[in-house]
Write a structure and sequence with these properties.
With about 475 residues, this protein is an alpha/beta fold. It has helices at about 20-30, 45-60, 80-90, 105-110, 170-180, 200-215, 225-230, 240-250, 265-275, 380-385, 420-430, 455-470; strands at about 1-5, 35-40, 40-45, 70-75, 95, 115-120, 130, 150-155, 165-170, 190-195, 215-220, 235-240, 255-260, 280-285, 290-295, 305, 310-315, 320-325, 330-335, 335-340, 345-355, 360-365, 370, 375, 390-400, 405-415, 440-445. The strands form seven sheets. It has a five-stranded antiparallel sheet. A hairpin with a 2-residue loop joins strand 19 (about 330-335) and strand 20. Helix 1 (about 20-30) packs antiparallel against helix 2, helix 2 crosses helix 3 and helix 5 (about 170-180) crosses helix 6 (about 200-215). The longest helix is centred in the first third of the chain and has 17 residues, at about 45-60.
Length: about 475
């Protein structure tokens, strides 16, 4: 087991005083320093606080009080970021949701989450049980006391089985997450991190809290090509596919460092990035832990690095168990917190893994394991092999029911133009055991991509089943 010191309350290294909100702290320390780029508008910390104060006054005038649950439905854009900060400053418990979530899912989720208001910055949806909020700026200065232990955010888990759960974090836990990542990955006052991932995903929230912890700069832009969004940014959180495309476009970038997630990291990718002056970091994280738990600078090895400060990792019967100062306070249901941990105080991840010299290797989800002709297939192990092909950007191995073998592996891939699936199958057959070899390769459809965020294996399985049924028919 690896273990780092876990203080009762996170140490903020003197950066953020316990008496005030982070953005207000930085106004006291560096009022005129640039804090935020909203498209092409640059706000100082003083300017930012003025905007947030006015929006907080507007929300308070509409009835938002400390402890209220507020659903925030928005893509990443400047108004969404300002609304997020203002709602936090009102002491609200903010639930950001993906605008793509279907009405039926929202109807099933909302009643259990004790929400009072909805701020919908996209095309309006029907949530009659919630009072609608408007973005309204009023003169004044409204702020609840800065209480780092207050329940402040609710983040939906991926919902791989059943309905998504809402993991509830305090500001203190988010800052602990940020502190751990920045102990490894330099991010200084003159650096600028692009908000490249949505705030309804924990990885997007991680960017926000690293910015607030460091007092650096952050960029929020309306949707446009990645190379344009990255203009002037030094840091970004990307998936390997995004970095491949950026490097293949030969676009001039100002990046110094990227935090990669979502898939295995090919050595060729990180070497190409290094030659352009970009350091690549990778890791392992979960919604329940406010993003990253283990991390390292990418080195080509299969592990995800050591536990960051404030995190603990151990392996029990092949399963990864965690606890950390960044852990959620619980899952929220009907106004109550449901514990995340087992009787021993650990969070059981359902991930298979191993520890070697303090470095964690994640083998794959226990839930993803399937059997073909009596042989166990861990999809992630097969995916790592196929991902080594220089033309493959993403690959997923999913089971297909088979009368003779029980289940057989099918590969769903995203690859460069000109990559022949038949040639890929031949290449893979030379590197995989016979029972691991996909019986079919399919191209990943655009409809299943999710803006750089985790793709649902359940949706992939259903899509593969439909493709196979259509072919047979």
């Amino acid at each position: 087991m690896t273990q780092q010191e876990m203080p009762d309350s996170v140490s903020l290294s003197g950066l953020i005083q316990p008496s005030d909100w982070p953005w207000r702290h930085w106004r006291q320390v560096r009022a005129k320093a640039p804090a935020l780029r909203l498209n092409d508008e640059v706000l100082s910390w003083s300017d930012l606080c003025t905007r947030v104060d006015q929006l907080a006054c507007g929300f308070a005038a509409q009835g938002v009080e400390e402890g209220d649950g507020v659903l925030l439905r928005a893509w990443n854009h400047p108004r969404a970021l300002l609304a997020w900060l203002a709602l936090l400053q009102c002491g609200a418990r903010v639930l950001p949701v993906n605008p793509q979530l279907p009405q039926s899912l929202l109807d099933a989720l909302v009643p259990d989450l004790t929400l009072r208001f909805a701020l919908d910055l996209e095309a309006a949806i029907a949530l009659p049980e919630l009072s609608p909020l408007q973005m309204q700026s009023l003169p004044g200065d409204h702020a609840e006391a800065w209480l780092p232990e207050r329940l402040s955010t609710m983040t939906l888990t991926s919902g791989s089985t059943g309905l998504p759960k809402a993991a509830v974090h305090t500001c203190q836990a988010h800052l602990a997450s940020a502190q751990g990542v920045l102990s490894l990955m330099p991010f200084g006052a003159e650096d600028d991190w692009l908000l490249s991932l949505p705030l309804f995903h924990v990885s997007g929230q991680g960017i926000l809290w690293r910015w607030l912890f460091a007092g650096a700069r952050m960029t929020v832009r309306d949707k446009q090509p990645l190379a344009q969004m990255l203009h002037g940014c030094t840091h970004a959180s990307l998936v390997p596919t995004q970095l491949w495309r950026l490097l293949n476009d030969d676009a001039a970038v100002s990046l110094k460092a990227v935090l990669l997630g979502g898939a295995s990291i090919p050595v060729e990718l990180t070497e190409r990035a290094r030659k352009q002056g970009i350091r690549s970091f990778c890791g392992y994280g979960l919604t329940e832990f406010a993003s990253t738990v283990c991390a390292k600078e990418a080195d080509g090895a299969a592990d995800v690095g050591e536990a960051l400060p404030g995190r603990e990792v151990k392996i029990v019967a092949g399963e990864i168990w965690l606890r950390a100062s960044s852990m959620a306070a619980g899952y929220w249901r009907d106004g109550q917190l449901l514990s995340l941990t087992n009787n021993e105080g650990w969070f059981t991840t359902r991930d298979r893994g191993a520890l070697h010299n303090g470095r964690l290797t994640v083998v794959g989800r226990l839930d993803n394991l399937f059997f073909s002709g009596g042989e166990g297939i861990q999809p992630e192990e097969v995916e790592r092999v196929i991902l080594a092909h220089p033309q493959v950007q993403q690959v997923f191995i999913v089971p297909l029911d088979d009368a003779e073998y029980g289940q057989r592996p099918v590969a769903v891939v995203e690859c460069d133009d000109g990559c022949e699936l038949s040639a890929l199958a031949t290449w893979s057959a030379e590197r995989l055991a016979r029972f691991q070899q996909p019986v079919r390769c399919l191209l990943l459809p655009e409809t299943l991509k999710n803006g750089g965020i985790k793709i649902s294996r359940r949706a992939l399985c259903e899509w593969v089943r439909q493709q196979t049924h259509a072919t047979v028919s």
